[in-house]
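Protein translocase subunit SecD: structure, please.
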Amino acid sequence: MKVRKGRLAVFSFLVVAILAIVCTTTGNIWNNITKGLDLQGGFEVLYQAEPGQKVNAQIMKDAAAAIERRVNVLGVSEPEITVEGTNRIRVQLAGVQDQKKARELLGKEAHLTFRDPTGKKVLIDGKDLKQNGAKVDFDPQTNQPIVTLQMKNADKLADVTRKYLGQPMPIYLDENQLSAPVIQSVITGGEAQITGQRTVEEAQELADLLNAGAIPVKLEEKSSFAVDASLGADSLRESLIAGLYAVLAIFIFVIGYYRLPGLIAVITLIAYSYLVLLTFMLMDVTLTLPGIAAFILGIGMAVDANIIMNERIREELRVGRSIPAAVRAGSKRSFLTIFDSNITTIIAAAVLFAYGTSSVKGFSVSLVIGIIVSFLTAVALSRILINLLVRSNILKSPGLFSVREDEISDL
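Here you go.
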């Protein structure tokens, strides 16, 4: 008797613990999930390599990496930068406050050159700059912001400054002259300076651009669009409301039709939803509208696993098995069916991820995560809960499984 009461106590404890954890931590988890462009606003731009250039997969990959380094200057979390086809790069920046500044930063080539006094011959190229070798400093005499540069080859800088001593050495960013300092002495330490910045912010932006490096191919903007933050918030709110209605409809159906197993299914679905959101947060998944659609679809697939198992249990009850025997047999018979259906969905999601665009990839990632988590909840957790109730010996009526007495065979 004590063992039976203990199992009922364990069941009660698990249910209360699940609901308590979900209620107290879901809000914090949701706030820490990265939202995509369509949920929090931002902008998207599609670049294409200008015709007549030598372009291959590696060059486009390097260009995407250079763009990502520039995006990091903006402080954007989880930018979506993808190479499409053989000559296009799509950039999605969610939560960008100053879209004009972002577009200007992405569009600049940032090719630094030190030239002879005529401005025609390149003496030192930006490639000679050390990685992250540009930083903001201040002129000790005027206290004006300057950008200091660390060169890879100090001897090269010394030779150039020795040759052109007393003459101006214009510094260009792309084809725009930044300054034309006169070489006062031979620079032997491998450190150069760029003056002429009016503010610290202007100097910092220049240093960031130089550290990001030049994009290895000229890109032209093919299309772009912006999503206002308020529109993203509206989309998120409407999506959540639609999802809530869908989930409530599922809960009402499974409880009304399957009785006690339906109630257990609802508990496991709550646990499923919580674990999926937690996984999104831990894996730094960027949640988009297609991702929310996949999340809601995953709830439907998770409840489908419960329905398959419950139907198998009901079939066993109808042929005259006892409740414990029906639960064991029904759980065993349903497993392969649930496994096969989920494997086929994972295969489809893998194909979508391999060949789809960024939004489709987000949908497929969310779908796969949902399927994996459903095995932990809709299959494992639901079996644990129902077996605890069965072994506590309080389930004595087939009616709790929505099976009428006249449906049970005498065989």
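Notes: The chain has eleven helices and eleven strands.
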